[in-house]
Amino acid sequence: MAVRAVSLALGPQGPDDRARGGFRPCWAWLGVGVRYDACVIGSGADGLTAAAWLARAGLATRVIERESVPGGRLAFREFHPGFRAPAFVDEPAPVPDALFHAFDLARAGAILVPAPTSLAVWPGRAHFMRRGETAFLAKMQLRVAALRARAEAEAARVPPRWTLLGKREPTPPWPSGDLCTESLDGVLRRHASGDEAAHLLAQALCGRTADPFLAGSALHLAVPSGGGVAMSGRLPQALAGIARDAGAEISCGLEAIEVARVKGRIAGVTMADGSVIEARAVISTLDLKRTLLSLFRWNELSGDLAQQVNQFRFAGGTARLLVALEHLPGCQRDALRGPIHLAPSAEGFAEANAAWRAGTIPPHPPATIRVVSASDPGLAPRGAASVAVTLSGIALRPFDGAWTHDKREALRTAALAALDAVFPGAKVLASEVIAPPDFEESLGLTGGDLWGGEIAPDQMFAARMGPRTPIAGLYLGGPSSAAGVLGACFGGFVAARALLADREAGRP
Amino acid sequence: MNARRYDAMVVGGGACGLVAAAYLARGGAATLLLEARNKLGGRLETIAFGDGFSAPAVTHALSALDPRVMKELKLARQGLRFSARDMALSVLRRDGKPLTLSRDRHATRRAIAAVSEADAARWPLFRKRLFAAARAMRGFWWEDGALPDERAIQESIQDLRRKSAAAWLDAAFESDALKAPFAFDAMAGGLSPLDAGSALVPLWQAAQEMCGLQGAVAFPAGGPASLASVLERAARAAGADIRTGAAVESVLLDGDAVSGVRLASDEVIAANLVLAALPRRRVLRDLVPAGAAGFALSNALDRAAPVTAAKILLALDRDPGLPAGRIVVAERIESLAAAHAAARAGKIPDELALEIVSPSSIESGFAPAGQCALSIAVRPLPRLDAAGWNAARGDLLKRVLAALGACVPNAARHVVASEVLTPFDIEARYGARDMQADIAHMLSPWRARVATPIRGLYACGGDAEAVPCTSGRAGRIAAAIALAERAP
To answer: pLDDT-derived band of residue B453, with 50, 70 and 90 as boundaries?
Structure first.
């Protein structure tokens, strides 16, 4: 009630505001608080990066986080006494090198250890790959670098204030447009042979759901993952430290429920507890649907925009099982430190995708096993092991209703079967299921989609919104933005760059 | 031995080949058409089955006969008549109520409104936009023109080539009854409705004009086979010679140019222009000497369509009361996508999608009085070998009858005869493979689609078209390009 009262009271401007050339909503006179230059919603890697970048540029910045600690998807969880594991992703997406150095993340305490090896296992055979050995992956990294450069250029280009009808300036095309019409299977088959192609496929689709035979699925190659294990989960702390040092405020335990606007301009953010944070601009690191459909009232969006947002598709399909093993499996040490893909062939991925579409739980979903305590020994007691199993192709909403206890057990059985296939006879002490709805609930991701929307040609690059949105002063910096899928921290960084560029050009 | 010397040779006597021969002859080239079978027309053939029934073997309606071909070859004067033009599209689903989309705007609106008010309101705008884009693209697909330069068209093309038919239809309509037939049509080239770019297929189909009516489907008097005889008369009238029962074994080269063809009977016919109205793959891999096509090209030709289509002909002793026109039996986009995935994995899908035309309800002569012949196209189906299809033949018929029975109760009980043409049969009999629609192919100019790396050799088979159809356009344009590029 209090919230509604405040937002309805956003009335005409006071005379002293006009004198100052700005505007102040009525609560300013109530003495609610200071006015920030920017408010960042969400304190994942993207949100903290955006805040640090803005604060370094001298803007009064505040970060709002719903959970009690910053970190978002990088959070760790103690799922059994003495056993910890990253709850949602084994490794964050790669942090762009330039950003890593600009923030001097290593000195701040964030150590990212890339997996030295990768193993793909099929019944009766296996394929082993060392880091940096595959020329194809290096080629893909160049593509991603080109895409990042394009995203940064987009952020720096301030849209013209006035456009003559039909005189819109053409935007330069995004690189890698050729991937939009090709199938993932086709591209990999062209560049690699047999087992290596299947291994690269498993690596590209780890935790994701896609039919590798469909035209356009090759875009998964442009969306990198596996940026290295963040040791002890210290990446968010490091980023938060940098943001705080630069002068940003980080408030945890606050949930944003509405972006308040006065005469079409961003005025502030209303919290679930009724308090209001005044800010001139907002960077949202939530996904597209959550940002535009839950932070704005239904009648605030134009019909076209609401339709565009509504039609944005989300895929998700990731589920995880955190397992505490009594003994560290006896295996070559190097192999344990990397992912072990128990992934089927391309046909198997297509089948898993069909099951995901139909809303059934496949008996043998593609799985990736990660002995997280092998690269980070602090995550498990001495001699024991913490293991995370990532499954893909798991439906958010099963066709026969909600995620009941039985379905979670079925998921646990499927994941443990995958684990048993790789480490036969390993003794399981405890395990915790993280089903797709848990992703949606804990991280606030629509559809439980870690990539902020289905990776499809009509939903990537220019077709993704962001960093600028049709609402002046609102920037999209999360996974749903065009830059958000190109690396950890990168979406937030690009949104902050766009905000600064606009400010310099005198835009609200 | 043939005494006459020929300037140009057309290999293959299907619709495209006949049109190409007619145009070459009109262009002043002494032309000879060679057909391997004893009969012209290829896929246009009508076959008899059961007791007094007959039905078109493969092509059961003309979706896109080029109006220029009709006019320039004076097909009406050669005897082409239509017994049904602008056939309505009906959707049959398990809920039993057919939804009929016809050119009558008001009737269509009412029919859609019975399913969904919102879709009925969106329908006119949807059609208008589709046909506006199709009209703007006319120069590109009627002639060897470039893509229109207009920015709005370019943008909508760029948009559609990245969109799957599923996403496009989900954005346009809310009811499955309306989405399903369009998704089925989008699968015509072997694409899944989830493939990026499959939204372009319906745009192509909308653009294909027939008698000046956009996107119209027609049934010639006497069945599609009559088109073959009309085209044959037109080709002969233009001055082309036609030889049937003359299988071409190889195309002879002189350096990088064509010098003639060798028949299976070892006869050599010289000509420095050869238009092969055959699948491009067959022309460049089987007819020319190995290596002549270049490595990259023959590699690209290895891509076969992952899914195929079959044809089932049914004789019913009573008219089942199906709506007139073209009927599509499909439930939802999701079920079509699942069927495509299953077919690609080598399984016959559980839920089959059908396209039905009843020739006997359009004109008499296809079935004894009071009875009914149905021509049913089934897709998507897996690519199996001869043995696989022989084993699956009975299963396929059973599933088709079940799918039909789910929408038309009692239909299965009245079946008195049936003929199953599996994908393998169709390929073996008519030599045509199922084409793989390809977005790059759809948006490439005609020249790139008909020309080959070999001078004087052009491929103008059905796969030169962007989407499968019987338009004759490939023949007309290939002939025009070939004549223009002919060495003086």
So the answer is: confident
Tell me the domains of chain B and their CATH numbers. Answer: 8-44+224-303+435-485 (3.50.50.60), 88-214 (no CATH), 306-430 (no CATH)
Nearest CB to B192; choose among A166, A180, A214: A214
Q: At what angle do helices B165-172 and B333-344 cross, to 10 degrees?
A: 170
Q: What is the dihedral of CA B361, B335, A351, A204, to 10 degrees?
A: 110
Q: How buried is residue A177: exposed, middle or buried, by Cβ count under 10 Å (0-12/13-18/19+)? A: middle
Task: Output the tens digit of pLDDT for each of chain A's 508 residues.
Answer: 333 333 333 333 333 333 333 444 454 444 456 889 999 999 999 999 999 999 999 999 999 999 999 999 999 999 999 999 999 999 999 999 999 999 999 899 888 888 999 999 998 899 999 988 888 999 999 999 999 999 999 999 888 877 666 566 677 889 888 898 889 999 999 898 889 999 999 999 999 999 999 999 999 999 998 888 888 778 999 999 999 999 999 999 999 999 998 888 899 999 999 999 999 999 999 999 999 999 998 888 888 899 999 999 999 899 999 999 999 887 667 778 899 999 888 999 999 999 999 999 887 899 999 999 998 889 999 989 999 999 999 999 999 999 999 999 999 999 999 999 999 989 999 999 999 999 999 999 999 999 999 999 999 988 898 799 999 899 999 999 999 999 999 999 999 999 999 999 987 6
Peptide bond into B382 cis (omega under 30): no
Residues of chain A with Cβ-Cβ distance to B172 below 8 Å are: none
Query: How far is B63 from B68, CA to CA, in rounded Å?
Result: 15
Mutate to test the interface with A, among B194, B335, B351, B438 (most CBs of A within 10 A): B194
Round to whole Å and give the CA distance between A286 and A268: 16
Structure tokens at B181: 């037939």
Tokens 């762009």: give the residue. Answer: A96
Q: Let me know: does B315 contact B53? Beta carbons within 8 Å.
A: yes
Quickly count: other Cβ atoms within 10 Å of residue B81's Cβ.
11
Write out the two tokens for A111.
């150590």
Q: What is the C-alpha separation between B174 and B120, in angstroms, rounded?
A: 10
Is residue A444 in some structural domain? no
Q: At what angle do helices B117-136 and B151-161 cross, to 10 degrees?
A: 120
Residue A382, classed as helix, strand or coil, is: coil
The verdict on residue A420 lying in a domain is: no
Question: How close A294 comes to chain B (CA, Å)?
Answer: 21
> Phi, psi at residue B140, to the nearest 5°?
-75, -40
Query: What single-letter DSSP state applies at residue B35?
Result: E
Residues 6+ apart with CB under 8 A from B296: none
Determine contact: A178 vs chain B, CB below 8 A. Answer: no
Q: Which residue's entry shows tokens 């696989």? A: B388
Q: Which chain B residues contact residue A166 at CB under 8 A?
A: 151
Range of the domain at A279: 2-75+233-313+449-504
Q: What is the pTM of this model?
A: 0.89
How open is the CA angle A400-A402-A403, to the nearest 5 degrees? Answer: 110
Q: Pairing state of beta strands A125-130 and A117-122?
A: antiparallel
Q: How many H-runs (helices) and E-runs (strands) does chain A carry?
A: 17, 18
Is residue A242 in some structural domain? yes
The CATH number of residue A18's host domain is 3.50.50.60
**Distance between CA atoms of residues B286 and B184, nearest Å:** 33
Q: Is residue A414 a part of any domain in this protein?
A: no
User: Alpha-carbon distance A182 to A295, whole Å?
Assistant: 36
List the one residue out of B23, B40, B47 whose CA is nearest residue B273.
B23
Q: How many domains does chain A have?
A: 1
Nearest to A215 among B171, B195, B345 (CB): B195
Q: What is the ipTM of this complex?
A: 0.88
E strands along A396-499, which residues? 428-434, 474-476
